Amino acid sequence: MSETKQHQQKNLSSREKFIQSANRGKLLANKCLRCAHIMLETIYYCEKCSGNKFDSVEYEGIGKTVTYTIQAVAPEGFEDTESYAWVVFRVDNAPFRASGFLPGVKSSKDLAIGEKVKVVGFNPNHGLILQKI
């Protein structure tokens, strides 16, 4: 990586780094330097030891659905979509779960518990964008 690209990467906020990872189909996580606990990058203090120094770790944004809520009528701010599911999924090979927006789900027939999903991007209004695989 060039020095300019490394410098630009260092100047990105945590949110921007998380979004860049999501747009590559990955999930950015933090590994606590004090106790090695791993959690999503969106956590600012370690859930185990309250440490605040981390190394970044990327995981494939693939996992299995553990629960979801179907929004049959989109609320304000979601006028650009029809029905969707807000999905919680266990991330493969990671010690955490994540959640995201899965468009096109109209009923429980459209999505099974245990069904594989993957991160395909990030939308400023909807967060992580998921797709069934």
Q: pLDDT under 50 segments (min length 5)?
A: 1-7
CATH class of the largest domain: Mainly Beta
Strand content: 35-45%
SSE order: HHEEEEEEEE
Look at the structure and give the mean pLDDT: 91
Number of domains: 2
Class computed from helices, strands and strand pairing: mainly beta
Shape: globular
Q: Please list the strands of the largest sheet in the order they lie side by side.
A: 6-5-4-7-8
The CATH topology assignment of the largest domain is OB fold (Dihydrolipoamide Acetyltransferase, E2P)
Put simply, the count of helices is 2
Largest sheet: 5 strands, antiparallel
Helix content: 10-25%
Task: Outline the structure in words.
- The protein has 133 residues and is mainly beta.
- The protein folds into two domains: 3-60, no CATH class; 62-132, OB fold (Dihydrolipoamide Acetyltransferase, E2P) (Beta Barrel).
- It contains two helices and eight strands, in the order ααββββββββ.
- The protein has a five-stranded antiparallel β-sheet with strand order 6-5-4-7-8, with helices on one face. It has a three-stranded antiparallel β-sheet with strand order 2-1-3, with helices on one face.
- A hairpin with a 5-residue loop joins β5 and β6 (97-103).
- The chain is globular, with a radius of gyration of 16 Å.
- The two termini are 32 Å apart.
- The model is unreliable at 1-7 (pLDDT under 50).
